[in-house]
Amino acid sequence: MKRSGRSGFWQLLPRARRTIIGAGREVGSQLFEFALVLPLLVMLLVGIIKGGVLFYDYVVLADAVASGARMLATNRASGNGNPCTLGETALKNAAYNLNQSLITIQPETFSGTGGSTCAALAPNDAVTMSATYPCDMTIPFLGSFWPTCTLSSQTTVRIE
């Protein structure tokens, strides 16, 4: 059996040196990986915030349409004016957080025995009120993904 010139410790020394030198090359790798992932995390955070604002606008619009329809349904015979105008005013007042000039109120649709105008409404007729509002899905530095995004809400009520 032939013996090598190196014994146990001296055989392990070159491997230990390579391990120590190799470990030094990883300095700053966490910062580099964070710099790669940071733009994705920022885009995800901005997307979550934009989605929350979009959902909030939808909830405000839906509540405003329901409020306008409720006003139209309950003020038919109050003598305070045209119930359709009162309903549209109530809708605009309920959507105070939205840009009023961008809210589009579609003409009311009527079904029942009363007819197709606000003046001819009768009890138990159904009235549908609807509105739309443009949404803004522009993400900074990326532009708009949905340039024609529109929120819409519709409510049907029975005239009292």
How many individual β-strands? 6
Q: What's the tally of helices?
A: 3
Overall SS class: alpha+beta
* Number of domain units: 1
Residue windows where pLDDT falls under 50 for at least 5 positions: none
Q: Helical percent range?
A: 40-55%
Mean pLDDT metric:
81
**Mass-distribution shape:** rod-shaped
Distance between the termini: 109 Å
Tell me the fraction of residues in β-strands, as a range.
Answer: 15-25%
Description:
The protein is an alpha+beta fold and 160 residues long. 47% of the residues lie in helices and 17% in strands. The protein has one domain (45-158). The mean pLDDT is 81. It is rod-shaped, with a radius of gyration of 33 Å. The strands form two sheets. Strands 1, 2, 3 and 6 form a four-stranded antiparallel β-sheet that branches.
What features would you highlight for this structure?
two-stranded antiparallel ribbon, 160 residues, rod-shaped, 4-stranded antiparallel sheet, alpha+beta
Annotate the secondary structure layout.
Blueprint: H1 8-24, H2 29-74, H3 83-94, E1 104-105, E2 109-111, E3 126-134, E4 138-139, E5 143-144, E6 150-158
Antiparallel strand pairs: 1-3, 2-3, 3-6, 4-5
Helix pairs in contact: 2-3
How would you briefly describe this protein structure?
The chain has 160 residues and is of the alpha+beta class. It has helices at 8-24, 29-74, 83-94; strands at 104-105, 109-111, 126-134, 138-139, 143-144, 150-158.
